[in-house]
Amino acid sequence: MSRFKDQVAVITGASNGIGAASAIALAREGFQVALGARNTEKLADVAQAIEAESGVKPFMMELDVRKEADVKAFVSAVAEKFGRIDVLLNNAGLAKGVTPVIEEEDAENWDQMIDTNVKGLLLMTRETVPHMIKGGNGHVINLGSIAGREAYAGGAVYCATKFAVRAITDALRQELLGQPVRVTTVDPGLVNTGFSVVRLGDQEKADAVYAGLTPLVAEDIADCVVFAATRPKHVNIDAIIVKPTDQAGAGKVARR
User: Fold this and answer.
1) Residue 120: which domain range?
2) What integer is the mean pLDDT of 182-207?
3) Does any domain span residue 210?
4) Which of 31, 45, 117, 202 is least surrounded by Cβ atoms within 10 Å, i.e. has the fewest?
5) Element housing 61 (H / E)
């Protein structure tokens, strides 16, 4: 019997990629999982896969982390169903475009990245952590990026959002000192998911990002999430930086 069978993990952006892989991996460890995403059709597929493997039906609900009302309704529904929240994986996030700052004509791209990657993370954290404190057990895991540690041309706003995630993570850890809540950031390099398609708007361009090298896959990052979440309560993994062997930094890759 899993020692996590009574614990509840909330995953945002759980309909695909790292979010979906992490939800499946956490459920495999015995966690009850609550899935949120905008695409409910894909979310249902993830929930079905989890139920088929574990026999336990996950909680799922439409969620746009950019909308405060959505976040409040989602967290309230999770708390009502399970009576507790133990893990929050702030995974929802995106990059839009690679246009230099002075050439960007569509500020909507900036708004989407800032509202999702930063504001959404803050809203989810604010609403869930009080439940963790009340339950005497909690862990906030933020999905960052090496872009939050090393800025690059064409990524000013995306990098800024991920630098913000790292700052929020570090500040939150200090703010919660003395409370039964751990705080972790997982910062990947190149991961072959739908991320680059969303960013570049084209599958061929996205494929070129990973051409000639072996990138990470969503399951690799899910492994990191599970590792952090399953440590003993007195152990806090502050940060995990994970890159493919073929990558040494942003834009520093070996291609064959």
Assistant:
1) 8-189+216-248
2) 93
3) no
4) 202
5) strand 59-62
Q: Global pTM?
A: 0.97
> CA-to-CA distance for 243 and 1, rounded, in angstroms?
33
Length of the chain: 256
How many C-beta atoms lie closer than 10 Å to residue 112's C-beta?
18
Q: Write the CATH number for 136.
A: 3.40.50.720
For 24-81, write each residue's pLDDT tens digit: 999 999 999 999 999 999 999 999 999 999 888 999 999 999 999 999 999 999 999 9
Residue 37 contacts residue 63 (beta carbons within 8 Å): yes
Q: How many domains does the chain have?
A: 1
Is residue 206 included in any domain, yes or no?
no
- Whether 199 is in a domain gets the answer no
Inside any domain, residue 3: no
For every residue of the chain, DSSP letters joined together read --TTTT-EEEEESTTSHHHHHHHHHHHHTT-EEEEEES-HHHHHHHHHHHHHHHS-PPEEEE--TT-HHHHHHHHHHHHHHHS---EEEE----------GGG---HHHHHHHHIIIIIIHHHHHHHHHHHHHHHT-EEEEEE--GGGTS--TT-HHHHHHHHHHHHHHHHHHHHTTTSSEEEEEEEES-B-SSHHHHHHS-HHHHHHHTTTS--B-HHHHHHHHHHHHTS-TT----EEEE--TTEEETTEE---
Residues designated as active site? 158
Distance from C-alpha of 14 to C-alpha of 86, rounded to nearest angstrom? 17
